[in-house]
Amino acid sequence: MTHNEQTIRRFYDAFAKLDADTMAACYAPDATFDDEAFSLRGAREVGGMWKMLCTATRAKGADVWKLSYRDVKADATSGQAHWDAHYRFSATGRLVDNSIDARFTFTPEGLIATQRDSFPFWTWARQALGTPGLLLGWTPMLRNKVRATAATNLAAYLARQP
Known about the structure:
Layout: H1 3-16, H2 20-25, E1 27-34, E2 39-41, H3 43-60, E3 66-74, E4 78-88, E5 95-106, E6 112-118, H4 121-129, H5 131-136, H6 140-159
Parallel strand pairs: 1-6
Antiparallel strand pairs: 1-2, 3-4, 4-5, 5-6
């Protein structure tokens, strides 16, 4: 098993336990993260997002939380994994089953330099948001609204952190 594969496994093992501190420790200081809801730069934002999401899940959804991962592959500079999350979306209380493909690049020290998570936004939106997601989940308008709300929530969360 490569060092970078170990990093991916450490990250998802921690995520399954909602251990955001261990997750954050897997990232380089100048790491970037992108998915359908977030576009983050630097360990403070990336780690802060995971802390915010893990805190919300522990507060409003620990009873249904489940994460599994598979197909972990990595070489000296890059890697990938597939992960599935079952959770309660804290903003609506609706249950979500999200299937995500992750791609990574790594520093020479084995820390995550970049992470790009991909999932079908419309599928997520109709589960997380209900009728609005079903009707508008394919539109850039709803995607932009979700991204703006996520950015606002993260900024507020980070402002409350020491």
